[in-house]
Amino acid sequence: MTTGVADSLIPYDEIVQEALRAVVGRVLNSIAESGGLPGEHHFYITFKTQAAGVDIPKRLIERFPDEMTIVIQHRFWDLKVTDKGFSVGLSFNQVPSTLVIPFAAIT
Prior knowledge:
CATH superfamily: SspB-like
Number of domains: 1
Shape: globular
Oligomer: single chain
CATH topology: SH3 type barrels
CATH architecture: Roll
Structural class: alpha+beta
Number of strands: 5
Helix content: 25-40%
């Protein structure tokens, strides 16, 4: 193998990450349309708190300066999904908060 030449000219990692983010979007759309998850299902989403377009309360950024995982299950509200990301209302220590998360921020 020649030094400095990429193993592949096809960006497989980027393609896979994009596909996985699309899965998150489809699941969130389904949740938003039906008003919740079936049975006892829950949906974990991990994202970079400092990524471009993320809008979360300062207290959450202070507590999670790099990455945060949220759980969509029973207690959420105002779930809105777009082609670029989603927003959702969640409670943290009984304090209601609205989070805006672009799909690009999801890890």
